[in-house]
Amino acid sequence: MLKHLYDTDCVTWSPQGKLFQVEYAMEAVKQGSICLGLKSSENVVLCSLKRQPSELAGYQEKQFKIDDHMAIAIAGLTADARVLCKYMRTECLEYKYTYESHHPVGRLVFKVAEKSQHKTQSGAKRPYGVGLLVAGIDPNGVHLFETCPSGNYYEYKCQAIGSRSQAARTYFESWFHLFEKSTLEQLVLHGLSAIKKAIMEDEELNEKNVEVGILGKNLKFTHLNAQELKDYIAKLEGFNPNSQIQQE
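Structure for Proteasome subunit alpha type, as requested:
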């Protein structure tokens, strides 16, 4: 049987038990430029590789601030990400207006996942073609979540999504045991090292094509400026995770 007979909407199951439009949306996430997140007991860092559609265009934004205590990094369709970003910001504002406190991170991620799942239940709609890494801090601690177009969501110590993200995940698998006690500077260097593993051989990291956002228990979400990025990239040459083990 031909595949295209079952991919005209997202409520028709194939004989193999698949929803092809949901799989297409998840493929859009895999084709997006890489973004990753990692956390310690005190801080969480988001790193993204920005793409330039042409030499005449600027770099696409990959990270969005939701509130002082929360931000997202995206892989996939930027237009869909902006819709979800607006929804998350509205939910945070309404929660703050009602309860005079920050929206719990896990509860908001659940709302986003539920919204994504509703898009897979109607033939008149399509799934969101974007994956989110949600970094946040609330009274329950430091959080890093991933959401999928299918409506699934997971909490991680570190995670990478997007194209060539497997190389970054392999780096994380080798060093994630160090992240819990890492300083903010060490987390940023680990994040940039993972991004460097995932880029093409003819590419190089610079302050224009990489974006780093930082958030801590005593630090509101902020992006590193161009000079700070340049300094961190310069430190990568001498960065050795093994030295962190020796210090411990």
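The chain has one domain: 31-50+59-240.
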